[in-house]
Structures are given as structure tokens and as C-alpha cells.
Amino acid sequence: MAQKGPLPLTFLFAPQVEEETTGQRAPWLQDCVVSLSPCSDLLVVAREQKAVFLSAKWRTDDSGREEMTLAVSWTGTLSTDEGECVSSSICIPLASQKRSSTGRPDWTCVVVGFTSGYVRFYTENGVLLLAQLLHEDPVLRLKCRTYEIPRHPGVTEQHEELSILYPAALVTIDGFSLFQSLRACRNQVARATAAGSDVIQPPPLAYKKWGLQDMDTIVDHSSVGVMTLCVFDQMKNASILGGFNASVKGSPPAMSRYVTVGGGPYTGFFYAVEGSSQPLLSHVALAVASKLTSALISAASGWLGWNKHKNEEEALQKQRPKVEPVTPLGIRFGLPDSRRHGESICLSPCNTLAGVTDDFGRVTLLDLARGIAVRMWKGYRDAQLGWLQVPEERGDREFSPSASLPRRHALFLVIYAPRRGILEVWGMQQGPRVGAFTVGKHCRLLYAGYRLMGVNSVTSKGWQLHTQQVCLLDPTTGALRTVNIPFHLALSDKKSERAKDMHLIKRLTTILRSREVEPDILESEAKSVLLDIKHPAIKKQALESLLSNKNAPVSCLTSVTSALNETLKRQGNYCKCKTSRTYHPMVSLSSLQTRRRWMKRYSSSQDSLEGIEDELSRVGPTLQRYAQLTARPSVSFAQDSPDSPLPAQAFLSQMECTDDGGLTVTRGLCSCVSFAGSFMFWGCLCGKSPPHKVCDTLQQAGISPQQLLSLLLSVWLQREKEVLQKPEEAVRNLHTLLIALSNMEGAVEESWDPQSISPWWQQVRCMCIQSHNAAAALLAAFVAHRAAKASTTSRLQSEWEAVSLELEQWVVCVRQLEDVLVLQTLLLVPPPQGAAGGAAPQCSIKTLLEGGTGGIADSVSKWVFRHNLAPERLKEILQKREDKEAGDQLEQRLLVAVCQRFPHSLSPDLLFAHCCWEYVVQWNKDPEVHSHTRIHTDIHTHTHTHVFLFMMVQNTFIVKRFSAAAFLTEKVGKAPKDRLCRRDVGMGDKAVTSFLGCCVQLLQILMEADSAVEDVAPPELSAEEAWCGAEGPASLAELALEQRGVHYPLVQHHCLLASLLHAAMTFSLKVKPLSLFDKNYVFFCFFSSILFHLSHIPAPSQFLLRVLTGWVQALVDPSSSAPPPSSGGPKADWWPSLCLELGSLLQVNPDILRRHIVCELYNQGLDLRAEEVMLEVEDKDVLGSQLLVLTGQRLSYSLLHSQSQTQAAMELLARLPPTLCTWLKAMDPSELRCPLVPLPQTSRLVGRLIEILPENHAQYSLALHLLEAVDALTTED
Fold it and tell me: Which terms in the Gene Ontology molecular function aspect does this entry carry (predicted)?
């Protein structure tokens, strides 16, 4: 039968009528012009001059369910000329031209026809796009035809067009031209709106205008499309109408066919020949020739704008646009009936049939290809028509003999009789009435008959057009309903078995949806329906609907499936029918439910498990700490709890029937498998159900022991928290279940040799090895080890203790799980608040073995990073391990315990190496974090590991940023700013300075370690006995030992370059560091393995002198706090020694640097520190000459440039020798950074000058005069 369902759209339009019609609220919709978009996203309701546009919107009802509604998006007046009213309208959705479109419309155009003859085009928001006066008579009907993909090879492809009917004329607009014009108008409107202008220039519109002749009245029409006569019809028409001498063209012409209804004749058929200069018939030739010569395929005239000034509007209203004359088109033939007048015509989607209504209350079905009426219905006054084209379901093709052919389509005619308030659906052409529905008497049947405009055979590939064919609008309830018809209703009459089966399944669906039905009634109805259905596919569908219902009790499901099973057995096709495969899991579910009801009342003695207490007590403290760390509160949903009731459909969805009658558990979602396992075994693990009875029931159900074992261990491992609450009781119950499953038939093979590996116990080991739940896996291994040992002993039947490969595998597995438990407990310790790092990693035996020999050290190093352990702290903890002491904190005790269990994998050298690597990796992710630059340079590891690890760090992480910093500094010629550093190096200027300092330290350590690497043998890498089977990537230590030896001179020069860059960044100096070296080798040697030579140029000395000057200035800089001497800041005490070391590498005389330091310290007023450095200067003569100038600058400032000059100072200046006075006046005190130095310090400086200058020195006498002057000035003060 036909299916009727409400489309989730609500009509929200209440019309404003005049006062005299306010009392008649019911038939108001019949007086309105209503049109609906085929996409059901726009509804237009118009009456006289006003209109309302309703657009689709989502809303949430009171129950929280979202639904699509039609809400008012625009309302206003459409008429612009005085006295004109809306006479017709349609909504045309325009397809999107984007490649990513999937079939939804880009926008919808509203086309409105008026009684004045105007046709206007609007957007969804009521914006007028264009208007045209095509004819001066009222517009009777607007219709559209869009592109449809031909279903058969010989069908002519129809083009899109818009047809406009006038009382005696028909205008057709080409769809492609209209589509392009509407898009252009919409774009111009958008641009005009953005520019603030209201005037647009519409593009030209091409159309054809026909004058329909030889018919008295025309009220409706249909444009059938282009057709082509076959050769026989062409010759027949030529011989009948043209006579014996008629000529026939080789190719038949293409003609556009139009069908009209009205009066005189009742139905008319018009044919317009396309693209042919010679018509088929002579009496048509004149008309066709005149038509072809005068048809309008030109730009439309008479465009109208809007929103112009009032003067322009009045001028446009006075001057009517020119209306082009019509092209006469005579009627070819018709259906004459002088008393009958047609009211409407509705074209079928396949363009072969049409339904016509008349004033006699008849509905006539026309065959358009033959031009005859093939069927008539009476008693349908004021009927409204629509068509439904339904494709064949994919499921039906499986049972059809024509499964290899294209999908078939069924055609139905929908008739709405408002006088009777009934909606009927009829099969075509001579089919029965397949559905009838009682609806309101004031509804409106909305049938568009077209889809999206702008679609062609190329753009429509892969599209799924979401369009509704027939909708019924009920103004009383505000509901918009659609009619859906199953395809099979078109196959036969009411006695069809398939139609009856579909009726039965619909009846069953209605019962299942009802929540108030009693279980007994549900059982009887479901059993009756399933036994009455004949078709196997529908029977299977009905059974699946019943089994997937959540409200159906298990007893009902069991009874129904049992009855169906017996019926199938009696019919003899039990093994052939697919429906029988759903019986076994249903019986299993019923049996399990029944067993669980009396299992809870059943009590039996549990099997004993001797010796497990010792093992549990041994690992008890670790289990307790592990349980405390994993028992943190977390968010979970109630429906996700494994203790929630298991619905029948969830259980059955995990079961599949095999060919031998057994059951297999499918591996679907992990949550579903967990629910099924908990349903079967959790009651036994908690001690609420006897394990032997449950296992017997499961074995009777046909589930293999291997799958049951997998489900049991899955539940055990996933519900680890509940297991650790009562581990002793849970372990005993698990042992009982495991023994019961092992004794099942097919579990442990009878031919198993105890000296070989058992597949049964190997399955247990595999699940324990792969599990990340270390505690539950260890307890399961304890139990399985005991059970395997007992099984092996019973098979050997010997008084000697059983020793086999199977038991040795279990010993290794237990040892590994104990190690994993301790390691996982350490990794679960939460880091301090605010520390870096993410969630704690989950480890298992499988992940550690796949991680290689360095996987364990890698996990611990990540834990060290998350906890931000300082190198000194880590070294202290490892020292306690060697002393067999444990700290007071939990993390210390756990780390010591882990290191004791992994003495080789976590040796100090390897652990420090992995920690160093982890810190560098984290620093590389975020170079701005200063704490990540800690590279553990103060940890003394093995020399070989030290050297090669730093080589890996240098080559992997350091060299790229280091080279970027060097080339950037070389490019800008000075210390780069923050923006340039972030662009080229990837970090700020402060981070670059810190990074370069770390590079200096790293290279220095590398040089120190390389000098001693030949004296020490390389370390021997080993692993624990239980972890020798690690297979995975090479460890960090192995990769380090595989590195080639360093090139000491190259490392030395890299260290030199890093020191220069660090100094330049620290003191913001101007320098081109790469220019200090030989340009012929610099680009080939730096950051490579080739040695280069230094160039002998004075530039390095000047750079080092500027570094020393910057260091002395930083000593007295009040803006920065004094850092510790070991820091890397500009005030560090090691800068002079570093410059001296760099000077030796750059071939700079160190005495020049020492003299410069002395002069800079005296210049800054730091006389005491200058005297300390003066002792190391070798060339005293040069130093004396330099200090003599500095002393003269001080005395010149005191006597000549000081603002507080005294009379005694002036008298002293007069008593000085002329030579000294002239020399003091030539001095420039502005070069002094600290001119205000106490006179005793200057006197002490002059005394030092007398000591270091020899008596035969040229300036010795000048120094004596200075000494006298300073002494005199000091005495007067």
C-alpha cells in the first residue's frame, strides 16, 4: 500500500484577508496562488498584490527533537502597475556550479506572472532581478522543464525551458539562457547593493513567442519537449497529406510538442518544427516557414528597473515597452468534445502520459505519443493531479529474473479530490488503486514536475538530487506531507503475495513501535505475522525487526523463533533458508538468560588454588600502589557501564552462525564485545554464578572454547579495577573458569605433546603480553601458569617435577609481567603540578619488546622529563640503588625498584644518555623553554657513549639551528634582533644567546671526551635474561657506538665559531663571524667534515678587544643584577680567559689582550682589578705608555675640565712646567668612562707608572712631572 508520512515542515502563514472574508477561514487557500520548490525549501503564497515567502529552517520542538519548518522569510507587495494581480508563480531552484556541490541548490528563483502580462523574477528575499512584458494579456500558467538523465539509449535528451501561457499565446524561454541571465542579474544586484546603487542593467533574454491558433479557449498547457518522428511515420504523413508526389527528406525533423487544454477542442496538440527549412507537409509549410522567419530569438526589450526616482518611475509607467508580435502556430490535431472544457493538465515525469481534469468531474489519462485518451476516472470534481515515479529497490533486484538489466521505474498517478477529502494513488497505465487516504477538504496538492535548473549530463555525475515529487499542504494543521509508494505495488494486483507480505511487515512494525502493547499480545501477533509471510527476504526482514526491538522480552523472542524454526523444519527447507541462521544465537541467549536466573540461587564449592597466596603476598605491595594510582576518579557514562543490562539485539549483533551449526563471536566494537563477555562471565568472576554450569551452557550453544577464552580474558583485563578490589577471590574464580574452559572439548588438543608449546596456553600468553593492564595480566599469568603446570603434570603422569618448554615460557612471561607491573607503577606516578608532559604512557610486554633494547630506558627517560628531575637529583637516586638504599618519597622508591629489576637496560650510562636525548628532543619541540635546554652536560657517563651521543645530538638537532644563527649573523653583520632570530633560527634572541652558550659547552665537553676516548675500551651492551628477545629499532647506545669518530680540529673550530657567536649575541657586537676565517674553505668546512685554515688578518684581534670592552662595561652596569660567576651572562668571570683561549686559536698575541683589559679596567675606574691583571702583562713599556695617556686624561679632567675648579688648582696649573701643561691641554678626557676617580687612586697609578717605566724611557721625565703634580694636588686637598 501507499505510505503517507508528514514531512518535517510546518506551514507558518496566516493570510491577511479583507473584512468581508474574515468569517470564511477554511477555503482561503483556494483563492491563493501557491507554489513549492521541488527541494521543499521555499514556499510562495500570493493573493492579489501581496505575497509571502517561507524558507526552510531548523528548530527544536518541546521534546528536544530537531525538525525542519517553513518560516516567513519575506512578505510584501509584488505588484508595481496599478490594477495588476498575481495570476501564477513557480519556484525554480538553480544548481550550484561549484565542483564540490553534491546536488543541493545554490539559490531559488521565484517567477511570478501578473494579469498585466508582466513576468518578474525574484530572489528568496524578495529582491527583484528582472521583469519583462512578453504579452499584453494576463499570464495564465507558468511551467518549467528541467534536465533529466535518459534511462534508455534511444530516448531524446530534453532541454530545459520555461514556458509562459497567455490566453492566445505561448512564450518559451530557453533554460540555459535563463539560467545565465538569472545568475548575472543576481551578481549585478549584489554588486549594486555593495556599491550603494539601486540601478542595474539586466542582461538580454532570448525567447520564442507562438500564437496558438484554431482553438477557442486555452486554460492550461504542457511543454512535452523535442520529439523526432520515425521514418515510417514520416512517410505515412507525407503520403496521406501530400499525395502521391509528396517528397520526403532523408532525416526526419525535430519538433517541439505542446499540449493545451480548454475548449474547442477539448485538448489540442501543437508541433513546432526546429531547425528545418523544408516542412514535412505542404499545408504546414507556410505556417512553419513564416514561423521560422519571424520567431523571436533575440534580446528581449522593455526592461524595467526599480527603486528609481519618482520622475523616472512615472515616465516608465506612461511609456509601455514594445511587445513583439507572435509567430502563428496552428493546431495539428486535438480531442474534440464540444460540451467538455478542460481545466488543467499534468505531465508525467517520463513525458509520455498526461492527466487532464475537466468541468464534468472527470480525470482523463492521455497517451501523448499516440494522441489518444487511454483511461478515464469519474467523480473527481475540482481534482488536483500529481505524478510519482518510483525506482525499483535494490533488494528486489536480487530476486528478479532481470537482475542484470537497468533498474526499472514504476509510475503512479496521484489524484486529490477536495470535494470528498480523499487522496488516491493509481498504478499506470491500467493499474489498480494502490492507496487511498482521508485528508482535509481544503488542502492543496503541490506537484512541481521539474527539479534543478542548470544541470546537464556532465555536472550531474555523482549528484543525489534531494527533491520531493508530490506534497500535500493542509492549511488547517499547517502540515506539509509527502506521499511515498513502494515499487512492488506496481507489479501486480491486490492478491499479490508480495504486497500482502509488505502489509504484514508494516503491521508488525506498527505493533513494535507501540510501547503499551502487552507481552502476550506482542508474542501472538509477531508469531502470526512471521508464519504468514511467504517471501523469504521479507520474512528475514520481519524477524530482524523483531530481534532488534528493545522492548521485546526475551521469552517472546525465544517463543517466536522456536515456532518459526519448527515451521521451517516441517517445510523441508531449513538448511536452505537464510532465516534459520538467526535461530541458534536466539536459543543461546534464551538458555543463558534462563541459566542466570537459577544460577544466582545455586551455590557450589569453589576449586582450591594452593600456593597462590605466596605469589600474591610477594607482589602485594606493588599491586596496592598500582591500584591506588589507577583508582583516580574519572568521568564515564552510565550507558557505557559493563554492568548495564545487555539488550537482545546487542548480544545477537555479536553472534554469527557457521555452516556447521555453531556460533562465532564477531569482532565488532570493543564495547559490544566487553558487554557480551561481561554478560557471560562477570557473574562467575564475582562468585554469583557457578562457573561449570555457565561453561556447559555456552558449550551447548556451540561457541568454540577459544572464543570463550578470548571473551573471558578480555573481561578480566578490561575490568582491572574491580578485580584489584578483591584479588584473592577473583583469582580463585578465574582459576575455576579457566580449568572449566580447558576441559571443554576442542580446548586443549588430545595430541598435544607436553614438551611442546600448546596453542591453548599460547593464546592466554598472547593476550597477557599484549595487554596494557599490567596488574590484571600478571594475576591471569599466575593462574594460567598454575593451570598449565597441573595439566602438564597430569599428562606426564610422573613423580618427577614437570619440566617442559611450555612451563619455561610461563616462567619468562611471569617474570616479564612483574617487571612491567613495577615499570607501569612508576610511570603512573603523577608529575608535579605545572610540569611539562602529557598523559602517562601505557606499556606492555609487546610494546617494550617492539621498542628494542632501548625501549625501557626510553620510557623511564620520558618519566624523568615529566617529573623534571635535575641531573644531580637523578644521580643521587641512582647512587642509592648501588648502596641498596631507598628514599623516603614514593617516586624514589619506585625508581630504585625499577632500576634494580633492569640492571642492564637502566645502567647509569644508558639512563643518562636517554635522559639527555629526551631533553634535547623536548627542547627541539619548544626552543623557547629555557628549562628544556638542560643537556645533562655535568653528568660523567662513559667516554664512548658521551662522545658519540653528543655527536648524534649535534648532527640531529644542533647543527641546523647553529648554522642558521651563523649565517644570519654573517648576513646582518651584527647580533640579529628578535624578529630575524625567530624567522631564521626559530626562536627569540634571548633563546638564541642561551642556545649558543649551550653549544659552546657541548663542543667543549666533546673535545675533552674525544681526547680520552682512545684510552678507554668501548662499553659492552647487554640486556636482562628475560628481555633478550627484544626486536625493534636499535637503541640509542647502539646508534651512538655506530657513529664515526670526531675530527678534533673541526670540533675545535666549531667551538671557536660558537664562542664568537655567543660573545656577539651577549654583548650585541657588530661582527661577521664567517669573515674571520678563510673564505675559500668556509662554506665547505663549517658544518661538514673537512678541515679549514685560518686567515692571517687582524680582524679577530679587534673583535676580541670589543668583547673585553663589553665585559668591562657590563661589570659596572647598574641595570643588570650581578649573576653568579659560573653563569653565562655578560658579567661572568670566565670571559677574559675565554678571549685569551680564542686569541691563541685566532693567532692573536695574548699580551695585547691583557694590556687591553688593564687599560679598560683603569678606564672604568676599577684600579684594583687592573693591578691584578697588570702582573700578567709581559711588555711593560707599551703598557706604561698606554697608562701614561690615561693618567694624563684623568689629571687634565681634574685641572681643566672639572666644573668645580679651585683657586689652588689654577695656581698649581700655573706652576707646572710648560711642557707638561701643553701636554695636559692636548689630552681628551671625554674618552674616559669614569673620569671622577679619587686622587689617591690616580697617585697610586702614577706610582705604578714610575715602577714599570725604565729610566731611559722617552716619557719617564713626563711621568715624574705627573707624579709631582698629583702629589701637590693631593697635598692641597
Answer: GTPase activator activity
Q: Is residue 146 within 8 Å of 168, Cβ to Cβ?
A: no
pLDDT tens, 856-871? Answer: 888 888 888 888 887 7
> What is the Cα–Cα distance from 782 to 799, expressed in whole angstroms?
23
Per-residue cell: 558: 525465544
Residues facing residue 385 across a β-bridge: 415
Mean pLDDT, range 1013-1035, rounded to an integer? 72
Buried b (16+ CB within 10 A) or exposed e, 1168-1199: eebeebbeebeebeebbeebbebbbbbbbbbb
End-to-end CA distance of the chain: 126
Q: What are phi and psi of 1233, to 5 degrees?
A: -85, -20
Give me 788's grid cell. 598449565
- Joined together, the cell numbers standing for residue 1253 give 717605566
pLDDT tier, 506 (very low <50, low <70, confident <90, very high otherwise):
confident
- Is residue 45 pLDDT above 80, yes or no? yes
Angstrom CA distances, 422 to 470, 473, 582, 1037, stand at 15, 13, 43, 87
Contacts (Cβ under 8 Å, ≥6 apart) of 311: none
- pLDDT value at position 68? 80
Cell of 1123: 649573576
Contact criterion met (CB below 8 Å) for 217 and 340: no
Per mean pLDDT, which range of 12-16, 181-185, 335-339, 407-411 is the poorest?
Answer: 12-16
Any idea which residue has 527533491 for its cell? 467
Question: Cβ–Cβ contacts within 10 Å for residue 1005, how many?
Answer: 17
Could you tell me what percent of the chain has a pLDDT over 90? Answer: 15
pTM: 0.52
> Looking only at Cα atoms, what is the longest distance across the chain?
153
Lowest mean pLDDT among 180-189, 581-590, 1004-1013, 1064-1073: 581-590
Q: What SS3 state is found at 643?
A: coil
Question: pLDDT band for position 260 (50/70/90)?
Answer: very high
Q: Which residues pair with 376 in a beta bridge?
A: 364
Share of the chain above pLDDT 70, in %: 73
The Cα-based distances of 256 to 226, 1088, 1181 in angstroms read 4, 81, 118
CB atoms within 10 A of CB 307: 12
Query: Would you state the pLDDT for residue 1?
Result: 37
> What is the sign of the dihedral through the CA atoms of 1104, 1108, 1109 and 1111?
positive
Phi-psi region of 919 (alpha: psi -120 to 50; beta: other; left: phi over 0): alpha
Orientation angle between helical segments 890-901 and 871-882, nearest 10 degrees: 60
Q: β-strands 207-212, 327-329: how paired? A: parallel
Residues 59, 65 contacting (CB under 8 angstroms)? no
> Which residue's C-alpha cell is 503520403?
239
CA distance linking residue 570 with residue 1256, whole number of Å: 138
d(CA 218, CA 220): 6
In this prediction, residue 751 carries a pLDDT of: 64
Nearest C-alpha neighbor of 1004 from the set 1097, 1134, 874, 1103: 1134
**Do residues 425 and 151 lie in contact, with contact meaning Cβ atoms separated by under 8 Å?**
no
HEC string of 903-954 equals CCCCCHHHHHHHHHHHHHHHHHHCCCCHHHHCCCCCCCCCHHHHHHHHHHHH
Residue 44 has pLDDT above 90, yes or no: yes
> What pLDDT digit, counting tens, does each position of 940-986 carry?
444 556 666 777 777 778 888 888 888 898 889 888 999 999 898 88
Q: Nearest CA to 848 among 1024, 634, 995, 1004?
A: 1024
Average pLDDT over residues 132-150: 90
**Per-residue cell: 222:** 504542457
Task: For residues 259 and 876, give the distance between their C-alpha atoms in angstroms, rounded to a whole number.
Answer: 100
User: In a 3-state reduction of DSSP, which class is residue 755?
Assistant: coil
Whats the size of the chain, residue-wise? Answer: 1277
Who has greater pLDDT, 1113 or 476? 476
